[in-house]
Amino acid sequence: xxxxxxxxxxxxxxxxxxxxxxxxxxxxxxxxxxxxxxxxxxxxxxxxxxxxxxxxxxxxxxxxxxxxxxxxxxxxxxxxxxxxxxxxxxxxxxxxxxxxxxxxxxxxxxxxxxxxxxxxxxxxxxxxxxxxxxxxxxxxxxxxxxxxxxxxxxxxxxxxxxxxxxxxxxxxxxxxxxxxxxxxxxxxxxxxxxxxxxxxxxxxxxxxxxxxxxxxxxxxxxxxxxxxxxxxxxxxxxxxxxxxxxxxxxxxxxxxxxxxxxxxxxxxxxxxxxxxxxxxxxxxxxxxxxxxxxxxxxxxxxxxxxxxxxxxxxxxxxxxxxxxxxxxxxxxxxxxxxxxxxxxxxxxxxxxxxxxxxxxxxxxxxxxxxx
Length: 371
Ligand SMILES: [Zn+2]
Known about the structure:
Blueprint lengths: L8 E6 L9 H6 L18 H9 L12 H11 L1 H10 L3 E7 L10 H8 L2 E7 H11 L5 H12 L5 E4 L1 H4 L11 H14 L8 H13 L4 E5 L17 H7 L6 E5 L4 H10 L3 E3 L4 H5 L3 H11 L15 H24 L5 H19 L6
Parallel strand pairs: 1-2, 2-3, 3-4, 4-5, 5-6, 6-7
The structure holds zinc ion.
């Protein structure tokens, strides 16, 4: 589908980038979900994402494709992080960034700064656990439920959605029942007593955050599947969310299952059987590199085309935005071209579906309005 080249993208889950200049170990650390390139790892340029950076980014910095990593990093340092960010983001064709602001806000650029680099709009997604930890630091546990509801209500004036990292804290096998305020107070008091109120990992509180977001009608994102070493991946299968998805069906609130890899086929199934479930493969695409076409096609086996969104989950490096969007466009075009070649859908329908997945589905579900 040649038209895919010019289509704007709504990136419904992404993060800021770091503005400090990066030496090679620091750059490699941001290529991986590991905390750093370990001594036994070898170079993390020798990965799908590393090769993706060398394939796609050097021409944006006036170097030949596949320029050696050290040469690339030297040129990057000479241009400076701001100019690199402007060039990388200009190559993405992203019209709207929906930025998760709840992780390392001291280190990463704000939504306004992302917008400043690119001229695209940037919006906030509020992270539930971070917000709760801030509230619990100042509110008495007995008043926590009301204080959290008030804070989220306030944040929802500008934020377009909420995100839960339940996967990182308690796993996704959440009891779907809505906890009472008494249970919330007790759990908050226990977190303060145990010294875990700065990193809340409690099933009752997690359910309370989720239901508060649902009550406010905020589109609700869940981290699902693959992530850094902090996650117990066996507790991140989206099928574990099935009881909660049943309980929230009919609420009218979209639930966004982020990334999903390697459970993306199960996520596609959930998107088919629940009309309020939306799915993407986010950071999987730059991490699987040459396999991006296969992974996106697997998501699109069962997921209705109206339930699939684009996200880069770019974090730290502006290069990730450039690599992820290039791979996504290529993978979606290949998937749709294959359907055209098989005479399974006509070109005009393929173009309509492309526009839905690139931006239309996100505009509808986050109430973004027209471009
Ligand atoms: Zn993310």
